[in-house]
């Protein structure tokens, strides 16, 4: 299928599909005219990419995980569990950091609002 067809089928923009290809997440074959053609597995590959991106994984990690899928779904081989757990722990750390930043900003807003209130 051509890139436009893949875009319509998956709801992912042509530009983003090209980006996935540049990142080594998606492969295509070029016609003699230079047009990209994707195999029948491309829609499932795009769905996997979207699922992993939604899980907060960077494209570098996704590229490493792509060969590790089992079957047609989003289940991965057990050999990547440590990698997934590390990513999960990193998300927990980022959430904790953002929570602290949110609390600090809330304190600043509260103090500023209190100082601006008429006496």
From TrEMBL:
HTH merR-type domain span: 1-68
One Pfam family matching this protein: MerR_1
PROSITE patterns: HTH_MERR_1, HTH_MERR_2
The keyword Cytoplasm is annotated on this UniProt entry: no
InterPro entries for this protein: DNA-bd_dom_put_sf (IPR009061), MerR-type_HTH_dom (IPR000551), MerR_fam (IPR047057)
Molecular function terms, GO-annotated: DNA binding; DNA-binding transcription factor activity
Transmembrane segments: none
Upper taxonomic lineage: Bacteria, Bacillati, Actinomycetota, Actinomycetes, Streptosporangiales
Protein name: MerR family transcriptional regulator
Organism of derivation: Sphaerisporangium rufum
């Amino acid at each position: 299928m051509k890139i436009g067809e893949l875009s319509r089928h998956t709801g992912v923009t042509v530009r983003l599909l090209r980006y996935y290809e540049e990142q080594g997440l998606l492969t295509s074959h070029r016609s003699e005219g230079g047009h990209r053609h994707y195999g029948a597995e491309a829609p499932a590959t795009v769905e996997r990419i979207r699922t992993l991106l939604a899980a907060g994984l960077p494209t570098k990690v996704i590229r490493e995980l792509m060969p590790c899928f089992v079957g047609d779904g989003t289940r991965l081989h057990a050999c990547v569990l440590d990698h997934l757990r590390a990513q999960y722990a990193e998300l927990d750390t980022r959430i904790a950091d953002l929570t602290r930043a949110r609390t600090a900003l809330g304190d600043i807003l509260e103090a500023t609002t209190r100082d601006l209130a008429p006496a």
